[in-house]
């Protein structure tokens, strides 16, 4: 029995050592977050260990709304085709662009191992320096007007922040009581509530994101003009005079019609060639207005307002007499 004890201890030790060197498939990434500048090569690291399978299946996928393969069945696919190489399970992508940014997953399948699948995730962020921003700057405005200037760089990543300059001097982005404008460094908008002549000058916008050198749009001059008060007074007086003249002409016309009616009333009759208006007929004792027919009941005459003779209803005339 004493001789068998050392043998049992040795065999147990050998089994322990053997179990330490037998691992199921494991996958990891020594650098799970990768940041590079645009057009640089991106290395997406992935390492694995297997228990028995010496030729495991390796796949790379890009996560998003839909998971897509970038490496499958030994070949690169999609946007990686012709732009990448594989070393072990590590992928090197040449001249990466902003579209290549995203979350990637390395998957290793070992069918002969006790644990057949292992995976690791790697995020790629491609940094893009500022581009020349698009600026909207008006060339002129009147005092007291609302003015908004805009600045935008759609291509940089991370998104750019903006700074405005007037005559090559930076404008303050902090809110102050004496400032007539507000500046939003995130959206790039410069807003004036009411411009004055002091706001005239050359304006430009600068975009920056900490990746590369800031970029500015071309400066443009803004001219603030005063309202011409003399011209405004002339226009106001002219409009008032025109209104007064219109009222006066209308009054004279009414007076003429009234005098004409009175004159015809003094004669005691209305001629067929001088037909009064409905307003005059209302004040004349023998004049009646029916539609477009004017009747002079005192002299038994009838005429249409259109000037054409109309047949007179003799039976109606006899009854009225």
Describe what you observe in this structure.
By secondary structure, the protein is an alpha+beta fold. The chain has four helices and 24 strands. It has helices at 4-20, 229-267, 278-283, 314-320, and strands spanning 26-28, 33-37, 42-44, 47-49, 57-63, 68-72, 75-76, 84-87, 90-93, 102-109, 117-127, 134-136, 140-142, 147-152, 161-166, 169-170, 181-184, 189-192, 201-208, 215-216, 220-225, 287-290, 293-296, 301-304. A hairpin with a 6-residue loop joins strand 19 and strand 20. The protein is elongated. The model is unreliable at 14-22, 269-277, 279-284 and 286-321 (pLDDT under 50).
Summarize the structure.
The protein is of the alpha+beta class. It contains four helices and 24 strands. It has helices at 4-20, 229-267, 278-283, 314-320, and strands at residues 26-28, 33-37, 42-44, 47-49, 57-63, 68-72, 75-76, 84-87, 90-93, 102-109, 117-127, 134-136, 140-142, 147-152, 161-166, 169-170, 181-184, 189-192, 201-208, 215-216, 220-225, 287-290, 293-296, 301-304.
* Strand ordering within the main sheet: 2-11-10-5-6-7
Share in β-strands: 25-35%
Tell me about the biggest sheet?
6 strands, mixed
* Total E-strand runs: 24
The termini sit apart by 163 Å
| Low-confidence segments | 14-22, 269-277, 279-284, 286-321
**Helix count from the secondary structure assignment:** 4
| Mean pLDDT score | 79
Percentage of helical residues? 10-25%
Estimated structural class:
alpha+beta
Q: So what's the overall shape?
A: elongated
One letter per element, helices H and strands E, the order comes to HEEEEEEEEEEEEEEEEEEEEEHHEEEH
Radius of gyration: 48 Å
């Amino acid at each position: 029995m004493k001789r068998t004890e050392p043998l049992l201890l040795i065999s147990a030790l050998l089994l322990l050592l053997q179990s330490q060197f037998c691992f199921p498939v494991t996958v990891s990434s020594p650098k799970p977050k990768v940041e590079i500048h645009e057009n640089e090569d991106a290395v997406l690291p992935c390492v694995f260990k297997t228990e028995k399978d010496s030729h495991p299946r390796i796949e790379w996928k890009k996560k998003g709304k839909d998971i897509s393969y970038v490496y499958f069945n030994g070949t690169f696919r999609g946007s990686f085709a012709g732009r990448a190489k594989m070393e072990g399970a590590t992928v090197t992508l040449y001249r990466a662009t902003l579209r290549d940014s995203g979350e990637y997953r390395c998957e290793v399948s070992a069918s002969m191992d006790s644990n057949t699948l292992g995976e690791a995730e790697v995020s790629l962020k491609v940094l893009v320096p500022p581009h020349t921003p698009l600026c909207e700057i008006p060339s002129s405005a009147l005092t007291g007007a609302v003015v908004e200037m805009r600045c935008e760089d759609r291509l940089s990543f991370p998104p750019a922040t903006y700074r405005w300059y007037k005559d090559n001097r930076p404008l303050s982005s902090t809110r102050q009581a004496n400032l007539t404008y507000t500046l939003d460094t995130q959206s790039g908008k410069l807003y004036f509530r009411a411009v004055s002549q002091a706001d005239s000058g050359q304006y430009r916008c600068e975009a920056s994101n900490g990746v590369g050198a800031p970029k500015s749009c071309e400066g443009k001059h803004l001219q603030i003009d005063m309202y011409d008060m003399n011209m405004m007074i002339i226009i106001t007086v002219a409009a008032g005079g025109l209104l007064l003249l219109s009222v006066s002409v209308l009054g004279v016309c009414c007076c003429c019609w009234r005098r004409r009616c009175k004159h015809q009333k003094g004669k005691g009759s209305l001629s067929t060639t001088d037909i009064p208006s409905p307003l005059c007929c209302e004040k004349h004792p023998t004049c009646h207005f029916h539609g477009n027919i004017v009747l002079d009941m005192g002299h038994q005459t009838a005429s249409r307002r259109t000037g054409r003779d109309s047949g007179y209803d003799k039976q109606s005339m006899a009854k009225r007499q």
